[in-house]
Amino acid sequence: EALIMFDGDYDILIKKVIDRKITTPSSLLKSNKTIYTVKDLLEDSYPVNNSLGLKSTSDIIDILTMKYPDLQIAIPVHAEDWDETSYIPVVAFIPAEYDDLTTKTVTGYINGNAIPVDAVNEPTKPVIVIGQNERSVLPIDPGDPTDPPTIPETPTNLTGIQTETGIRLTWVMPPFTDPLNTSGYDIYRKSVNETTFTKIRTVAGAYNRAYDDNNIEASRSYTYYVMSNFRGENSYPSNYISVTAPNFPKPVLAFDAIQNSLNEIELRWQNDHSQYILETKLSKHVIGVTNDYQLINTFTPNQQDYFDRNVVAGKKVIYKINHVTSIGESNAKYDFVQVPFRDISQKSPVYIKQIKFSDWRIEGWLAGKPEFYITVTNVDAGGKTPFTVQNQMNLEFNSRSST
Length: 403
Description:
Layout: E1 11-13, H1 14-17, H2 38-45, H3 59-67, E2 71-74, E3 90-93, E4 105-110, E5 113-118, E6 127-132, E7 156-162, E8 167-172, E9 184-191, E10 198-204, E11 210-213, E12 221-230, E13 233-234, E14 241-244, E15 254-261, E16 264-270, E17 279-286, E18 294-299, E19 305-308, E20 316-325, E21 328-329, E22 333-338, E23 375-378, E24 387-391
Parallel strand pairs: 3-6
Antiparallel strand pairs: 1-2, 2-6, 3-4, 4-5, 7-8, 8-11, 9-10, 9-12, 12-13, 12-14, 15-16, 16-19, 17-18, 17-20, 20-21, 20-22, 23-24
């Protein structure tokens, strides 16, 4: 009966099956009735010497179903794996003080013995659980104001995943959920350093069962639950989940600033397409001219070069590039050029013939012989201020020596 999943879960509502006819299971039972029902089976199976002070054992089912009209028998997990011919499951019940967040164990019974059942970690085999059904509320006509308030169905199977811009939540409702019994859903959240939940959004509509939470901080963990609402009433909370928000984007894979001519600097970069990129942001800082980095432009994820022709001769220019998403910016990558006074697209009259190295204090010996960035300046007999002719030339070492 549980496999029918009348309410979307492996539940059996006792009041719906209590009068169903079944085959007499054994001649050893106390009843000799020819029409045998589920109620007869439960009453015949109940121990004679009990401590509930009942008038007779036949009263137990009537008393329970009257006091708990939503009483159910459930097989929450592994119901489809149960081979009833070879396995007798533990039977547990949900106590009144049960709390999803704090209850660690509940009492279970097997072969007449009470045992603790882990209430946090899913068992590997079927367990029968006695409790009250949370899904069997009948729809109420919203046009009748005399109807009593109805607690709407509880959302189940709340899940959360990282997206390009935040966290996406989805949940499940019973098949009969519609606008006649559900108005929408309230989303509750707390972050890892908060002690209480806050309602962050109400999603309108019985069939809207997803929400994108994009108001998050990178890499922060958030806990969520969802409640359905109808005519001013809220359901019980769904299951609780914790999801870690996505991290900041990764930086570009490579970035180079290249002086092509007197008034042109080429910027080249390689975007990291293994991730979502909203845009790429390029900034520059001109030493002695600007106080900080100034934004040059933003680019689509498919753009990977730019020519900067707004240059000042003789100045050092540092370029910075970042990937950008709605969560934030990546770490920056940098490159620089020392803008020359002369047109470097033409041959230079300067020829470097030899560089000698003899002082290990320049660079520790563990790193090998030092590599040099070459800057050539012009000083004439008139005592004019030296200026940079060219820097960062590509030198190839053809032989290994101290020279």
